[in-house]
Amino acid sequence: MAIDNQTTKLVTGKVRLSYANVWEPQENDSGDLKYSTSILIPKDDKETLRKIKAIVDLLKEQAKAKYNGKLPAKFHTPLRDGDEERPDDEAYANHYFFNASSKNKPGIAKPIGKDPSTGKTKFAEITDTTEVYSGCYSKVSVNFYLFDTKGNKGIAAGLNNIVKVQDGDFLGGRSSLNDDFADEDFDTDDFEDDDDFMN
Protein backbone atom coordinates (compact mmCIF):
# COMPACT_ATOMS: atom_id res chain seq x y z
CA MET A 1 0.00 0.00 0.00
CA ALA A 2 1.38 3.39 -0.96
CA ILE A 3 1.44 5.85 1.93
CA ASP A 4 1.11 9.55 1.24
CA ASN A 5 2.64 12.43 3.18
CA GLN A 6 -0.67 13.31 4.80
CA THR A 7 -0.79 9.87 6.41
CA THR A 8 2.76 10.14 7.75
CA LYS A 9 2.57 13.78 8.85
CA LEU A 10 2.11 14.59 12.52
CA VAL A 11 1.65 17.68 14.67
CA THR A 12 2.76 16.90 18.22
CA GLY A 13 1.18 17.99 21.47
CA LYS A 14 3.27 20.27 23.70
CA VAL A 15 6.83 18.95 23.56
CA ARG A 16 10.23 20.22 24.66
CA LEU A 17 13.09 20.89 22.27
CA SER A 18 16.59 19.60 22.98
CA TYR A 19 19.73 20.00 20.83
CA ALA A 20 17.75 22.61 18.92
CA ASN A 21 19.83 23.49 15.85
CA VAL A 22 16.90 25.20 14.15
CA TRP A 23 18.44 28.55 13.19
CA GLU A 24 21.66 27.43 11.49
CA PRO A 25 22.25 24.02 9.89
CA GLN A 26 24.87 21.75 11.45
CA GLU A 27 26.93 19.08 9.73
CA ASN A 28 25.69 15.57 10.52
CA ASP A 29 27.62 12.28 10.54
CA SER A 30 27.24 11.99 6.75
CA GLY A 31 28.67 15.46 6.14
CA ASP A 32 25.28 16.96 5.20
CA LEU A 33 24.19 20.33 6.56
CA LYS A 34 20.86 19.94 8.33
CA TYR A 35 18.56 21.78 10.70
CA SER A 36 17.59 19.46 13.54
CA THR A 37 16.18 19.05 17.01
CA SER A 38 15.48 16.31 19.49
CA ILE A 39 11.80 16.29 20.48
CA LEU A 40 10.92 15.27 24.05
CA ILE A 41 7.39 13.93 24.50
CA PRO A 42 5.97 13.48 28.03
CA LYS A 43 5.02 9.86 28.61
CA ASP A 44 1.53 10.97 29.67
CA ASP A 45 0.90 12.57 26.24
CA LYS A 46 -0.91 9.43 25.10
CA GLU A 47 -2.45 11.10 22.04
CA THR A 48 0.86 12.13 20.42
CA LEU A 49 2.38 8.73 21.25
CA ARG A 50 -0.65 6.93 19.79
CA LYS A 51 -0.36 8.90 16.54
CA ILE A 52 3.37 8.16 16.24
CA LYS A 53 2.79 4.44 16.85
CA ALA A 54 0.09 4.36 14.15
CA ILE A 55 2.40 6.03 11.62
CA VAL A 56 5.34 3.77 12.53
CA ASP A 57 3.11 0.69 12.14
CA LEU A 58 2.02 1.88 8.69
CA LEU A 59 5.59 2.46 7.58
CA LYS A 60 6.68 -0.92 8.95
CA GLU A 61 4.06 -2.56 6.76
CA GLN A 62 5.37 -0.63 3.76
CA ALA A 63 8.92 -1.69 4.64
CA LYS A 64 7.88 -5.35 4.88
CA ALA A 65 6.37 -5.15 1.40
CA LYS A 66 9.62 -3.62 0.13
CA TYR A 67 11.88 -6.22 1.80
CA ASN A 68 10.16 -9.50 0.85
CA GLY A 69 7.63 -9.66 3.65
CA LYS A 70 9.79 -9.04 6.71
CA LEU A 71 11.62 -6.18 8.37
CA PRO A 72 15.39 -6.04 7.87
CA ALA A 73 17.62 -6.83 10.82
CA LYS A 74 18.40 -3.78 12.97
CA PHE A 75 15.52 -1.83 11.45
CA HIS A 76 15.61 1.62 13.09
CA THR A 77 12.45 3.08 14.59
CA PRO A 78 12.46 6.72 15.72
CA LEU A 79 10.87 6.73 19.19
CA ARG A 80 13.24 6.13 22.11
CA ASP A 81 12.75 5.92 25.87
CA GLY A 82 14.48 8.75 27.73
CA ASP A 83 14.50 6.86 31.04
CA GLU A 84 16.41 3.99 29.43
CA GLU A 85 18.71 5.84 27.03
CA ARG A 86 19.41 9.01 29.05
CA PRO A 87 19.13 7.87 32.69
CA ASP A 88 21.47 10.62 33.92
CA ASP A 89 19.70 13.47 32.08
CA GLU A 90 16.88 14.96 34.16
CA ALA A 91 15.25 16.60 31.12
CA TYR A 92 14.70 13.18 29.50
CA ALA A 93 13.15 11.59 32.62
CA ASN A 94 9.59 10.34 32.04
CA HIS A 95 9.81 11.28 28.35
CA TYR A 96 10.07 9.53 25.02
CA PHE A 97 12.10 11.32 22.38
CA PHE A 98 12.96 11.26 18.69
CA ASN A 99 15.17 13.33 16.42
CA ALA A 100 13.87 15.29 13.44
CA SER A 101 15.95 17.02 10.76
CA SER A 102 15.68 18.76 7.41
CA LYS A 103 17.89 20.30 4.76
CA ASN A 104 15.39 23.17 4.63
CA LYS A 105 15.02 25.68 7.44
CA PRO A 106 11.84 24.99 9.44
CA GLY A 107 9.13 27.59 9.73
CA ILE A 108 9.32 29.06 13.25
CA ALA A 109 6.38 31.01 14.68
CA LYS A 110 4.20 31.72 17.70
CA PRO A 111 0.40 31.89 18.01
CA ILE A 112 -1.03 35.41 18.27
CA GLY A 113 -4.75 34.74 18.69
CA LYS A 114 -7.73 33.73 16.61
CA ASP A 115 -8.86 35.15 13.29
CA PRO A 116 -12.42 36.33 14.04
CA SER A 117 -13.60 35.61 10.51
CA THR A 118 -12.41 32.00 10.35
CA GLY A 119 -11.94 31.05 13.99
CA LYS A 120 -8.50 29.66 13.13
CA THR A 121 -5.29 30.45 14.98
CA LYS A 122 -3.10 33.22 13.57
CA PHE A 123 0.69 33.04 13.76
CA ALA A 124 3.60 35.48 13.75
CA GLU A 125 6.98 34.44 12.41
CA ILE A 126 9.77 34.39 14.99
CA THR A 127 13.02 35.90 13.74
CA ASP A 128 14.76 36.46 17.08
CA THR A 129 17.12 33.51 17.40
CA THR A 130 17.05 33.69 21.21
CA GLU A 131 13.32 32.94 21.33
CA VAL A 132 13.46 29.29 20.28
CA TYR A 133 16.16 27.27 22.01
CA SER A 134 16.95 23.96 23.70
CA GLY A 135 14.54 23.81 26.62
CA CYS A 136 11.58 25.78 25.27
CA TYR A 137 8.19 24.15 24.70
CA SER A 138 6.64 23.92 21.26
CA LYS A 139 4.28 22.08 18.99
CA VAL A 140 6.16 20.59 16.06
CA SER A 141 5.08 19.43 12.61
CA VAL A 142 7.07 16.43 11.37
CA ASN A 143 6.86 13.92 8.56
CA PHE A 144 7.96 10.31 9.06
CA TYR A 145 9.49 8.38 6.16
CA LEU A 146 11.44 5.22 5.33
CA PHE A 147 15.17 5.52 4.73
CA ASP A 148 17.78 3.15 3.32
CA THR A 149 21.26 4.67 3.27
CA LYS A 150 24.68 3.06 3.52
CA GLY A 151 23.24 -0.17 4.83
CA ASN A 152 21.13 1.53 7.50
CA LYS A 153 17.38 1.01 7.18
CA GLY A 154 14.48 2.32 9.18
CA ILE A 155 12.10 5.19 9.84
CA ALA A 156 13.24 8.78 10.26
CA ALA A 157 11.48 12.07 10.93
CA GLY A 158 11.64 15.16 8.74
CA LEU A 159 11.36 18.53 10.50
CA ASN A 160 8.68 20.81 9.01
CA ASN A 161 7.55 23.65 11.29
CA ILE A 162 7.83 24.75 14.93
CA VAL A 163 5.33 26.80 16.92
CA LYS A 164 6.66 27.97 20.28
CA VAL A 165 4.09 27.78 23.07
CA GLN A 166 6.05 28.34 26.30
CA ASP A 167 9.47 29.23 27.68
CA GLY A 168 11.42 26.68 29.69
CA ASP A 169 14.74 26.29 31.46
CA PHE A 170 17.67 26.22 29.06
CA LEU A 171 19.08 22.77 28.39
CA GLY A 172 22.78 22.21 27.89
CA GLY A 173 24.13 24.23 30.79
CA ARG A 174 23.05 27.67 29.64
CA SER A 175 21.40 29.71 32.37
CA SER A 176 18.89 32.52 32.05
CA LEU A 177 20.14 36.08 32.51
CA ASN A 178 17.03 36.86 34.58
CA ASP A 179 17.60 33.82 36.81
CA ASP A 180 21.27 34.64 37.33
CA PHE A 181 20.68 38.22 38.45
CA ALA A 182 17.12 38.19 39.85
CA ASP A 183 18.32 38.43 43.48
CA GLU A 184 21.17 40.88 42.87
CA ASP A 185 20.86 44.50 43.90
CA PHE A 186 21.83 47.09 41.31
CA ASP A 187 22.02 50.79 42.11
CA THR A 188 20.18 52.14 39.09
CA ASP A 189 21.44 55.65 39.87
CA ASP A 190 24.85 54.48 38.66
CA PHE A 191 23.48 53.97 35.16
CA GLU A 192 21.32 57.01 34.67
CA ASP A 193 23.85 59.22 32.92
CA ASP A 194 25.46 57.20 30.18
CA ASP A 195 27.39 60.25 28.94
CA ASP A 196 29.52 60.30 32.09
CA PHE A 197 30.36 56.60 31.92
CA MET A 198 33.85 57.09 30.47
CA ASN A 199 34.66 60.37 32.22
UniProtKB/TrEMBL annotation:
Q: Which InterPro entries match?
A: Enc34_ssDNA-bd, NA-bd_OB-fold
The domain of life is Bacteria
Annotated protein name in UniProt: DUF2815 family protein
